[in-house]
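Predict structure. Chain length: 616.
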Amino acid sequence: MCGIIGYLGDREAYPIIINGLKKLEYRGYDSSGIAIFYENGYSLCKTKGRVYELEKKIYSCKIKVKGTSGIGHTRWATHGIPDDLNAHPHVSNSNELIMIHNGIIENYYSIKVILLKNGFTFKSETDTEVLVNLIEYVKKENKFSLEEAVRISLNEIVGAYSIAIVDKYNPETIIIAKLGSPLALGINKKEFFIASDPIPFIDYTDNVIYLKDGEMAILKKGEELDLRKILDNHKLNPIIKKLQINLKKIEKGKYKYFMLKEIYEQPKTILDTLRGRLLIPKGIICIDGIESHKDIFINAKSITIVACGTSWHASLIAEYLLEKLARIPVEVEYASEFRYRNPIVKEKDVIIVVSQSGETADTLAALKLAKNKGAFVFGICNVVGSSISRNVDAGAYTHAGPEIGVASTKAFTAQIIIFVLLALKIGKYRLSINDNQYQSLCKELGSVSEKVDHVLKVNQYIKEISKVYYHVNNFLYLGRGINFPVALEGALKLKEISYIHAEGYPAAEMKHGPIALIDKNIPVVIIATKKVCYEKIIGNIQEIKARKGKIIAIVNEGDIQVSMMVDHVIKVPETSEELSPLVTIIPLQLLAYEIAYIRGKNVDQPRNLAKSVTVE
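Prediction complete.
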């Protein structure tokens, strides 16, 4: 969940690391720190707060930042509150070893007890300080080299980590290692760039190695990379890949926040997700991961989809799509609960795992459990080379491009597009969808980006609605059928970035409890398009009005009946039921953004959250 970065080469390390930390803040931003190394010494600075607070402290304290090797960290707190002491980097008791860490050491307490008995003391509450002192203990007790002490220590660790560690007496060597948390290594003419993902170093090199679980690397200035297995020290041949990231895609451009930029990118990202996969004139859908395993999907008795957060909401939409178009029973599971309830997974069962980052710890754990039981695992993720993409049997990238805003937007619509394609493709194989319906949906898929673009033009009206309700404490979101998950996602977006309590419900469930909340002070957002239970939704609206609730309705253009009954109307183009979530979610994303903006919140970096949840 945290972001780590390091540099070793001939350039000044400080500007590379501090600018890289700014690009990694979407992974955590409650504290940050940096260590710059020089001959037989180092400068260390860390502080609570975002990276600009770190910059201010370095400047005001006149901290020496000259040196050609260094490490940095931006934190999402797990062990210990966000403060200067718990911020990384952490140092060993002798002040000789300096380390940064992303992940969780689950057996840290038992190790800490042993170290306390051996005279070690601790300044922080973190598991990271325990690990760096364990490495020091192993190193000094056995007179090991640092790389051997790291390897031996990591073999005693239970949990997840990506680390970088330096000995102050050997500042031209950095040792890195990975298990469960992402770690990328950029290489350029015998200089090394270390980061949680490649975004911080794409200005310098397009050569990247994604370390695999159980791997460590010894990086020495001016020497070739030394890559090894942590378990047995077996030397490995690194696989270098070329980065395909466009720098403009990770810049805000004319937008104040990445989230708003990413909302407005959705017409393009929908086209990018469809590109090469949908041939409209011929009615052909091309997804190699399905075509290569055609028989598995034709013969599937059921499908289980496993995801977290926004991806879980997209998966609920997939349940409607796959059951309707492919006629396969579908269960959608929270990845965080899946493996802890001893799920029934049999050999050749079909499991679909969904994650924007491809690094979500709970989803990865579910993937591994499913594979260990012999299931066929299909992955849907956005990040090329991510852990999920490397470990599934087959899959599909969403091609949404880098998503920097913590609150996911374009990744959600891209995942829905993939699920529509899967449902149509599998339905065609299983003969569960007639040709007219298939061709009609393929054709409409080709034009849905235009409809999304059209919806984005209502933002001025959404701004006016936001001015009316930005001060309230509670929202209720209602939807039916395939738009019920959209209500859940709309409520989540508002919660994430504005800190207003919001709940999503199936509209018909309102009278089974939530109706008790409704009065003149609680706005209700209801998705009231004509395709899904329109008459019954009108009944729900009447129930709300009878209790003086304020209603914001998402309706189709040309709607009269609902429009006359509610307080505010947001109009979207008429769309088939299967594709309607792609247009109904847009106003809900904009509403959340505009309310958060009026309330003065940091939309891209909401409190307590991080983009990629790489710890359990």
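Summary: The chain is about 35% helix and 25% strand.
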